[in-house]
Amino acid sequence: MKTPVRVAVTGAAGQIGYSLLFRIASGAMLGEDQPVILQLLEITPALKALQGVVMELKDCAFPLLAGITTSDDPMVAFKDADYALLVGALPRKAGMERSDLLSANGGIFKPQGHALSEVASRNVKVLVVGNPANTNALIALSNAPKLKPAQFHAMVRLDHNRAISQLAEKTGKPVTAIKKMTIWGNHSTTQFPDLYHAEVEGKNAHALVNDHEWYEKTFIPTVAKRGAAIIEARGLSSAASAANAAIDHMRSWALGTPEGDWTSMAFPSDGSYGVPEGLVFGYPVTVRNGQVEMVKGLDINEFSRAKIDATAKELEEERQAVRQLGLVK
Ligand code: NAD
Ligand code: LMR
Fold it and tell me: Out of the domains of life, which is the source (predicted)?
């Protein structure tokens, strides 16, 4: 058995937390030979509810769960954390865009970025799930001068999984037949789910579907607006699928991506694919030994160029907005 690693989770008493913590403790995230210590952060009024979740975690008698701590202080919850999943934030309600949460949630990520910078493991891997995820990750990394910006990711894996599932339904193939899906840009309605490089049983997905109208008018909006559709149907934002995507993202980051495939992760742009430097942008990536490598050199056609530019423009506007709020320099 390996030495336990420390996994910090914020918003641990919330909806996503209720699904996420049990999967982490079961070994689904880091592997069935990796013990974990959960370090759970909540706001003070939610600490009582969190105690109930802790009781349930204990009642599962997970063999890999080597300890649990709870706190309302990020400096305590992030101490020596090897992984940090920043979930704690308000979810949107029907009729809101995720960017409407910027001023409400942005303020959470400045002190959390600072605390991670001060007390987390120097190799901490941070995944921001709380919306608007990309720009919250930008706020956190901008306030974490002692860590590298690339240690901060935002989650576009839920969009990635949604895109795979929609394409599998359309083509009548299993999800396992689909490789090289990419979500470019923001976890928002401007995101660009790319079928030009995706493959179904090794064949180009866009060519195989051979229906650009479906791609543009049905597939892209269905994936990009899925969060709102779930809020409309459930009265609450997605939770189990979001937790599952967070598990998938961290598992890929820690344990790598399979040969012949890639995944989508949002992290600070180095200017590749014409995206302004520093924006936390969804890209295709491979991961080996914990090292994330952007897939470079893909052909970007006119349609894709316009989509990538539109989502970059939205992220640039969000960056300006949080600069004005004093959350980013
Ligand atoms: P929720 O309201 O059920 O839970 C959020 C929890 O965060 C609450 O328990 C709250 O007390 C806690 N919290 C609030 N401020 C905090 C702080 N400063 N520190 C620690 N904890 C804090 O919400 P949820 O459904 O679990 O969703 C959480 C976030 O995840 C929302 O912003 C939602 O929009 C987002 N989300 C993102 C994706 C994605 O794909 N990126 C998917 C689904 C949901
Ligand atoms: C989602 O995509 O389901 C989440 O980001 C929740 C939301 O507000 O859409």
Answer: Bacteria
Ligand 1 proximity of 266 Cβ (cutoff 6 Å): no
Separation of alpha carbons 228 and 129, rounded Å = 16
Taking CA atoms only, the protein residue closest to ligand 1 atom 42 is: 242
* Residue of the CA atom closest to atom 7 of ligand 2: 227
Distance from C-alpha of 231 to C-alpha of 229, rounded to nearest angstrom: 5
Q: Which helix (H) or strand (E) holds 189?
A: none
H helix or E strand, kind and range, residue 13: none
pLDDT in tens, 198-255: 999 999 999 999 999 999 999 999 999 999 999 999 999 999 999 999 999 999 999 9
Strands 203-204 and 199-200: antiparallel
| Upper half-sphere CA count for residue 244 (Cβ side, 13 Å) | 9
Q: Any idea which residue has 């996994």 for tokens?
A: 7
Q: Binding residue per annotation — 271? A: no
Can you tell me whether residue 92 is helix, strand or coil? coil
What percent of the residues of the chain are helix, what percent strand, and what percent coil, each to the nearest 5?
A: 45, 20, 35
| Whole-number Å distance between alpha carbons of 37 and 27 | 12
Contact 84, 124 (CB under 8 A): yes
Which of these, 194, 159, 206, 199, lies nearest to 176 by C-alpha position?
199
List, for residues 53-108, the tens digit of each pLDDT value: 999 999 999 999 999 999 999 999 999 999 999 999 988 888 888 888 888 888 89
Rounded to the nearest whole angstrom, what is the distance from the C-alpha of residue 67 to the centroid of ligand 2?
Answer: 31
Active-site residue flag, 206: no
103-108: Cβ within 8 A, 24+ apart: 103/325, 105/130, 105/131, 105/132, 105/136, 106/135, 106/136, 106/139, 106/322, 106/325, 106/327, 107/325, 107/327, 108/136
Q: Cα separation of 27 and 166, whole Å?
A: 28
